[in-house]
Amino acid sequence: MTFSLVRIPANPARVSSKADSAAAESRVIDYIRTHLQPGKPLVVSELYSKVFTQPDERQALDKLYDAFFRIPLFLAQYQDRTGSPPKLAIIQQQFDLQTPGASDVLLRVMESDPRVPHFFTRDAKTGEIVHIDVAMIRSDERFGQAVERHLTGWEGRAAPNFNLESMDGHTINLGGLSGKTVLLYVWFTGCPPCMKEAPGLVALQNEFSTRGLTIVGANADRVLGLSYDDDIRQRYIKDEKISFPVVHWTKESDSAYGNISIFPTLFLIDGKGMITHHWVGYVKPEEMRKAISETVK
Asked: Which of 67, 149, 160, 193 could serve as 258's disulfide partner, Cβ 3.0–4.6 Å?
């Protein structure tokens, strides 16, 4: 599949049901799996204009296209954080891939395209990644800049401004929260570690709100091209008793914050707008509680 840096524009208003979205993704993945040939890339523009002409199929293709560009960053970041490569199941979860074997197919796309450097090695029997060459990812012009921006330490840096629309149509920006401690929580609907994180965040908001803490839950569904709509998000917010504001993450903010590829990602920002802590993946509540307690003083 030929992936250039000219991205197919996603349309947030074009949302199909979860079942339709999963079925469309399955059709796209099955087609790629069948037609992929080693050393001969598929051309995504042809798939978009000639093969997948229905809106739900094009939405699925948008999502997979976006995942293709985020996977190298995710692999590098996961390796850097844990010291080992992620399992295929973890890749499935991080990119909300609904089709069994979808993560394997996307890795095969990378392996088949002669222009993509071979920055990972897989077990021939299981298909699992056994080695990741982070240095090679960093040196590739398509992925290296994003890796450097995301892996470089955020702590001690001024937080980029954000201007994000909430679920009820209001706008929340970092400048308007000056003087408060802000925990920016970037997540997507259905993300298993995000769902694990949410109850602890609700408890922290209740505990520290009177001391100046504001948690901003930035939902990345639209950026990732996921099919969830506001009704589903609102139901989740109600079920989890989320009391902090939930806003729509944007491509502009995602770029400013280093093109996030592991969810959840959290930034703790003090009253002067400086990032004091940066977490990637699930964080134990007691670890965040300690950091927040020190920051709100």
From this structure: 149
Contact 111, 118 (CB under 8 A): yes
Cα 281 from Cα 117, distance rounded (Å): 27
Q: Note the pTM of the prediction, 2 decimals.
A: 0.72
In the numeric block, the tokens 């408890």 are attached to 203
d(CA 67, CA 267): 23
Burial class (CB in 10 A: 0-12, 13-18, 19+), 32: buried
Q: How many CA atoms lie within 13 A of 76 on its CB side?
A: 27
Two structure tokens written together for 135:
């240095």
Tens digits of residue pLDDT in 158-200: 999 999 999 888 999 999 999 999 999 999 998 888 999 999 9
Kindly state the tokens that stand for 243.
């009391």
* 162 neighbors 253 (Cβ within 8 angstroms): yes
What is the maximum alpha-carbon separation in the chain?
Answer: 59
Query: Of 110, 141, 148, nearest to 127 (Cα)?
Result: 110
Does residue 155 come out as left (phi exceeding 0), alpha (psi in the -120 to 50 range) or beta?
Answer: beta
Q: Which two tokens stand for residue 58?
A: 């094009």
Please tell me the number of Cα atoms within 13 Å of 180 on its side-chain side: 18
Three-state SS at 209: helix
For residues 140 and 119, the answer to whether their CB atoms sit within 8 Å is: yes
Token digits for 276?
Answer: 């004091």
Q: How many of the other CB atoms lie within 10 Å of CB of 37?
A: 8
